[in-house]
Amino acid sequence: METIVIDYGSGNLRSAANALERAGRETGAGGTVTVTGDASALDKADRIVLPGVGAFGDCAASLRSLPGMTEAMERNVREKNKPFLGICVGMQLMATRGIEHGQHDGLGWIPGEVHPLNPLDATLKVPHMGWNVVTPTSTKTHPVLTGLAKTAHAYFVHSYSIICKNETDMLATSDHGGQFAAVIGRDNMIGTQFHPEKSQAAGLRLLGNFLKWDGGSI
For residue range 124-160, what is the model confidence (pLDDT) as tens digits? Predict the structure, then answer.
């Protein structure tokens, strides 16, 4: 089993790959983890991970600058239904568009837009940085969230969040002067606004679940 971490100059690739490798060892999922910007590698992969750090528009442009990458992602994730995980801006890129220094097209996999955080409490700082509770939105547990406590804490670093058009695509929320989407997903795709690779036991459990996930929904 091979998991591809897409390298498009996003920054936290190695830490994400290391966490996936550790999760594979500790859960018995095994397999290899490869960091690459080669679009053809996706055709041989079993799972695909898109991390992301930075501005939505810059990340979208960098991803599209890789020859054949968005086409390979469409082919493997949307057509072949391979399990996909987006992390932070990688999750935001699943949206229709991002509103950050203009409008920028996302992948369009999850209908919705990425907007700036706007805490109701003016004393709360943006970017939102640090540990926060992740609360599932449904009594039916998604396979990738199995075994996570209902008060699981995860590590966030972000100034923007996705507003999903369909509430069913929002799998978990967190709060920073108002609720925002912490986990989104549909079909074989899932994304986390937080960084599982920085979220200790909860993050490793989520990554281990992803490595065992066959892409089926609840």
Answer: 999 999 999 999 998 788 999 999 887 799 999 999 9
Closest to 52 measured CA to CA, from 108, 5, 112: 5
The predicted model scores a pTM of 0.96
Number of domains comprising the chain: 1
Strand partners, 185: 190
Taking residue 110's Cβ as centre, other Cβ atoms within 10 Å add up to: 26
Give a yes or no: residue 144 inside a domain.
yes
| Amino acid 218: pLDDT | 56
Q: Which amino acid is at 70?
A: T
Which amino acids are annotated catalytic?
88, 195, 197
Q: Residue 90: inside a domain, yes or no?
A: yes
CA nearest 87: which of 194, 177, 204? 194
Q: Cα–Cα distance between 218 and 204 in angstroms, integer?
A: 21
Instruction: Give me the mean pLDDT over the 3-30 stretch.
Output: 91
The answer to whether residue 107 is domain-embedded is yes
What is the span of the domain harbouring residue 132?
2-212
Rounded Cα–Cα distance for residues 93 and 97 (Å) = 8
The amino acid sitting at 69 is: M
218 in a structural domain = no
CATH number of the structural domain spanning residue 25: 3.40.50.880
Beta-sheet strands, E only, within the chain: 2-6, 32-36, 47-50, 84-87, 95-99, 103-105, 110-116, 128-136, 152-158, 160-164, 170-175, 179-186, 189-192
Q: What is the pLDDT of residues 31-51, one digit of tens each?
A: 999 999 999 999 999 999 999
According to DSSP, residue 98 is labeled E
